[in-house]
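The instructor's notes for this session suggest beginning with a concrete chain rather than abstract definitions. Hand out the sequence below and ask the class to guess, before any prediction is shown, which regions might be ordered.
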Amino acid sequence: MAIHHALAATALVALVAAPALAAPPARTDHPVKAAAKPGPKDPDTAAWWARIATLSSDAMRGRDTGSADYARAAAMVAAAFKAAGLQPAGDAGTYLQSVPINETKVETQGSSFAVVAANNRRTPLRFLHDISVRAGPGLPRDISAALVFRGYCGADAIADDVRGKLVICFAGRRAGMPAASDREATARSHGAIGLINIDDIGFTIEPPRWPEAYARSLALGPVPAIVPAQMPIMRLNAAALPVLFAGSGHSARAILADAGAARPLPGFDLPSRFEASFNISQRDLNSPNILALLPGTDPSLAAQALVVSAHLDGYGIGEPVNGDAIYNGAFDDAAYVATLVRLAERRKGRGFARPVLFAVFTGEEKGLLGANWFVGHKTIPQTVIADINLDAIRPLFPLKILTLIGLDKSNLVDHVRAVAGPMGVDVRADLEPERGMIGRTDASPFLKSGIPGVSFMFGYDPGSEAEGRYRLWYRTRYHKPADDITQPIDFKAASDFNRFFYALTQRVADAVDPPRLAPPAG
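After discussion, reveal the predicted structure:
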């Protein structure tokens, strides 16, 4: 789309003109946030908005997976489901399903990153602002290695001369550029000690955002007793590239300009070394899913359950942005936990034809952990026929277009169109498949196990005002403290989507035939 090229040029100018290093640290206390705007007038949306305000308040501290704040939020949601007349569907007659998780974190204190020039001049890089690292239990405590740049790091650009060195790559995310897994496999096979991936500033569909909240990874199960060594994979803010290229005779600005335009890139060795120390901590966590069942009314369909899902976890407390360290997660995803609660409250124990399982998952932001755990450890006897998932749908403008994630995966699209059509809503496929959204929502584990699943986003026409609002939200609020109750919202659009979801749930739950997967392509 034309707008992508315009945005790419704007982003490129901003990045290559930026100073080499990030600004001084923001203060770590967060300011008092602005008062919430006047709320919606219709009772259903007002109750929905009030629930969001509670779940995403500063008092909830971002509901990070495995935190005490998440546990408090989970207890609130479970209590709401109980009050609405839903039956417990978790472990041992409760509303909670225990999900064992292990965490590895690279601590800000005690970790360091620096480029050391040939004259031993040391230039530090600021952790989480200039550079970050993929956390993992097999990460070494220290690295020191010579630096080489190998363009896009395709198989034709890396040879055995990178053995024992740290390879810098432009981490292209566009068609024709090596994927992250390919870059890593090629570097590892040639003996590289690690990778530094430069942000793809030309990928304006999902532009790079800094600072990162933290460097931590979560996985299912307890902390492993024995882990294989892990090759360090780092992410570099493009604005810090001049520090790495200093003294090389190559211009960071020129390299970024060529990379942003997807032109060929050279490969060359650098005169400097890279040194880093990682202060690694590990711990076991337990972060529950919240599961509640609305029994069905048709005995002939009692063995089939529809799942409606959203995720409760957010990013918690992270690196401050403009002095604010609480990543509230209002639209992502307190809003759609609230939608599930509203559906339960509206039904007040009045079932659909089929049973409906209300599933509020944990650990979505850390790799779909709760949804994966549930799919592998189902707590209900019924066969799951489908998952309708709600995640970061973003009612920023009128609901005229609905992007259906998973449109081509099952005949759920027919149900979606049957409900959306009379509402004047056009249902479309994802226009930006490069983002891989189908694998980034809690519908994905269901689809991988052969169960139909869908998720949604508000859609827009290219170049429209709606697209501008979406892009701005994504740049400034997605996975940031600004995703809070004070942000812009179109309450009519929010109400329209919730009405759509209520009707879609009823249509699928009451249908004679369960949804079915689409036949394999080809």
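Then share the key points. The longest strand covers residues 267-277. The first helix runs from residue 2 to 16.
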